[in-house]
Design brief:
2 copies of one chain form a homodimer. Chain A is of the alpha/beta class and 345 residues long. Chain A is built from 12 helices and 12 strands. In chain A, strand 8 and strand 9 form a beta hairpin. In chain A, helix 1 runs parallel beside helix 2 and helix 5 packs across helix 6. Chain A is globular, with a radius of gyration of 21 Å. The relative contact order of chain A is 0.15. Chains A and B meet through strand 9, strand 10, helix 8, helix 11 and helix 12 of A and strand 9, strand 10, helix 8, helix 11 and helix 12 of B.
């Protein structure tokens, strides 16, 4: 740590010189996706299977191994050029994880028994390749940093807004990890200390107000209270499938309750962006996730406006709030960077 | 940036091998303090003068130069040993500053005309020594990291609670700066988006609820509204000198309004600590500043309790919330580290 250790030069230097290809795995709550990922950001031999969360941890681990074996088989059956060698496996996993030991700790969406699973060791054992594993949002930030919206940025914050809200922080070209690998959980920034309970046990966090599940919960409440007949009809029609997209659709149809709920979520996100700018002084806030993607400028506009009006002058002048660029491939592309950084240092 | 770039080995390695002594300057809103600081953390030839903020920027810069010249004269008049050479000047300044150019941008407490003052260049010109300048909270974190409560810690957060609330973040042994040097402004974490206005233009920030000036403002309001006769008497007796210590004293005397105000401040601080733990996964939160120091365990206890009950499990198990150790000398001691890191890389 030095006063002027802001090293010039390329960020993530190890990726371009990666001496082979990577087996990439994106483990999600609903899907397991795998592919061969090349150092130039090309994905080949994709596969996707349903995540068998309800069948227990062994089934999930087995499905991951089979997906990777399938991908490796197709890769090996195909004549290749310079990228002919597989040098490692990169895994994007729901958090919390221990990235130093390759352990998935206790993610809420892989089933109740999925606790402290040494996924990296299982996969290394089955496939015989070195495995690097990290939290999905950390891997996504790596992907956006090398191949996406944050190419060339040394200081940026990645926020994903979908069912939950997650994040990652890159400062001076390095991903913040913390001693347990837990840094970056921006969904747990406080927004309103008298606000709704958060799934983590806290109160009034960003995720408890602006996430897809929070919006759905507020929509159901507005339906149940009689505040909105349209939301009540949507809840009845959709059943357990009712979610934030339906609240957003009700807003588009002119429903005042839906509009209040969506405004509340956008305002919470915008307010959090002010804190992010003041605390991190980033060049970019890269916003991903299905909810933010669906909302587009409607979601990003209020955030930009809040930052330019209310964050510190120099930091506000610097930052740009931009959409992520890699969509659903962000985890598979980030896996290249993850493996490259483990391999090269 | 790599997945396992958490370098083992000593943090701040350049300080112990510093080839001489440092002229340290702590520019504050009320006092300018200066001393010779040795690499072992010894301070010699101290001086302190009132900050002539109301006389304009030139007077403040002149007072800084004279204080440093006085200290250098005493140092040179004294026979010395191995630390005989002055190798540079380290300056702790109120923020915001541009640490890369050594410019003090527009601190609220050095007078209205103190804007974009190239203090490092002025002092280098007058004293002929290389100058390193940074925000007071960044310098304080360096001091605590080498000589104080965070010795040996690679990941810690420093928060100071006095008239205002400031902070600094050390991640994997490096101080977070951001491209404009503005990172670490933890006083502008959001606590309550429907809360009181913050001096920065924002709303409901930690500083707007838990700082000394926020507590004083709430105390005056409780006096004016008739809620507390004791606070009304204290406001009348103290006039412009009324501040957070009087609200704290009224709480000690059993005043319910004062107790509500102090509880509110402690709760805001504790809630912010949860977010700090979730977002940074630090080993330590080091809490400094006169208000936190005066409150002692009363301030830290609720923060520890909130973190252990409500932050993420692994991160909560890791972190300790501790008082700063260096008191009023933190800026002068941090200046050694600031100069050492600029000199050594």
């Amino acid at each position: 740590m030095t006063a002027d250790d802001r090293t010039p030069g390329p960020v993530w230097p190890t990726v371009a010189s990666l001496p082979g290809a990577v087996l990439a795995l994106d483990l999600g709550g609903t899907q397991i996706r795998a592919a061969v990922a090349l150092a130039d950001g090309t994905l080949r031999h994709r596969t996707a299977v349903r995540t068998p969360s309800s069948d227990g941890p062994d089934a999930v681990v087995g499905a991951c191994i089979r997906a990777l074996e399938d991908v490796r088989r197709s890769f090996e059956a195909t004549p290749t050029g310079a990228n002919g060698r597989l040098i490692g496996i990169g895994i994007s996993s729901p958090g919390p994880v221990d990235p130093f030991r390759g352990v998935v700790v206790d993610p809420p969406n892989l089933g109740p028994d999925f606790r402290d699973v040494p996924l990296a060791a299982h996969i290394d054992g089955a496939l015989g390749l070195p495995v690097a594993l990290d939290r999905d949002t950390q891997v996504a930030a790596m992907g956006e940093g090398v191949f996406g919206a944050a190419r060339g940025a040394r200081d940026f914050v990645y926020v994903t807004v979908s069912t939950g809200i997650g994040g990652a922080i890159v400062a001076d070209g390095r991903l913040l990890r913390g001693p347990d690998g837990g840094a970056g959980e921006l969904g747990h920034l406080l927004v309103d200390r008298s606000g709704p309970a958060c799934g983590c046990g806290g109160v009034g966090h960003l995720e408890a107000i602006a996430s897809g599940s929070a919006i759905a919960r507020a929509g159901r409440a507005a339906a149940a209270s009689g505040e909105s007949a349209l939301l009540a009809r949507l809840v009845a029609a959709e059943g357990p499938g009712f979610g934030a997209p339906h609240v957003a659709a009700a807003e588009d149809a002119g429903d005042p309750a839906a509009s209040r709920i969506m405004d509340d979520a956008r305002d919470a996100f915008a307010s959090s962006c002010i804190a992010i700018v003041d605390v991190f002084n980033p060049e970019l806030i890269v916003v991903g996730g299905s909810l933010a993607r669906g909302q587009g400028e409607r979601w990003l506009g209020p955030a930009r406006d809040a930052v330019s009006r209310r964050a510190f002058r120099l930091a506000a002048r610097r930052v740009r709030v931009v959409p992520s660029q890699l969509g659903d491939d962000v985890g598979l592309l980030g896996a290249i960077v993850l493996v490259g950084s483990r391999a090269g240092g």
